[in-house]
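Hey,
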Amino acid sequence: MKRIHPLWSLVLLLLVTASVHGQTVLVGNINLNTIGKYDSITGAAINTTLTGPTPGASVYGITHDDAGAFYVANFSLGTVGKYDLATGAVINASFITGISQVTGLAYANGSIYAASFNGGTIGQYDSATGTTINASLISGAGPINFMEISGGNLYAAVDSGRVAVYTTAGAVVNTSFITGLTAPGDVAIAGGNLFVTTGNSIGKYDASTGAVIDASLVTGLSSPIGLVINGNGNLAVGVYGLNSIQEYDTSGTLINGSWITGLNGPVGLDVIPEPSTYALLGFAFMTVVFVRKRVRCQGSARA
C-alpha cells in the first residue's frame, strides 16, 4: 500500500480548514457602545465585546477594508474609529474626526465614505491615513442612516423616506431611486435585489431600477434597523425592539427568529469575509504546485 506524502496530507488539511472557515458578522450595540463578533453562518458568538465600550460614542455604522481593519462610526463623538479586524485592538480611536452626527459608513477602493446625519453630506477619506479627500463629496443628501456600495454605486437610506443613489465619485444617479418609505434604516443588495428596512418591515426592490417587488416582504418587526446578507445568503436584520438579530431568506420566510440574541440596541451590522480563508487556499495551491514539481523531479532522477 502506497504511503501518502506528508505534504499532500497538509494540503488536504488546509483545504478542509478553508472550506469550513466561513465569514463573521460584526454587530454594534448602541446602548453599550460595544462591537461584538459572531459567526455569519450560525450566529454563534465569537467575541461579544470585540471592542469597547467607548464612552459616549453611540456606535452606529460599521465597515471594513481589505487590509485587515474595520471602522466604527461614533455618532455622538463625530468620529470614526479604526480597529484590527482579528483582535479588535484599537488602531486609532479617532481615525477620522469632525463629522457631525456620523452614521453610515462604506468602503471601496481605498476610501472610507462617511455620512453626516444632520449635515446631509457624505465625505470621502483615505482608509490608510484617515486624510480627508473630500468632506462634502456629496452634499444636500438629507439625513442619511446607513449606506452600501455595490457595482460602483452608493445606495443611501435617507431618513426622510427614500433611497438615493450616487456614484462613488459623487455624481448623482437618482436621489429618488425608491420613495414612500418610513424612516428607512439600512439597505442590502443580493441577487439583483435591493432590500430596505423601513418602519416595522423589510421591503424588496429591483436593484437596477428601484421598481417595487414586494414592499412588505417581511412585516411585524419591532424597529428593524441594520440589515446585511449573512454567510447563508439570507437576510440578517437587527431588530432593535427585541435586542436580537433575526434571519429570513430573500423570499421573506423566517429562518431563525433568534439567530443572535442577548444584544443591547443592535444598530450597525457588517459581514466580513474571513481573510484567512483566502490565505489558506492560496497556500494550499502553492503547496500543490511545489509537491507536483518535486514528484516530477524525483521521477526524473530515478529514470
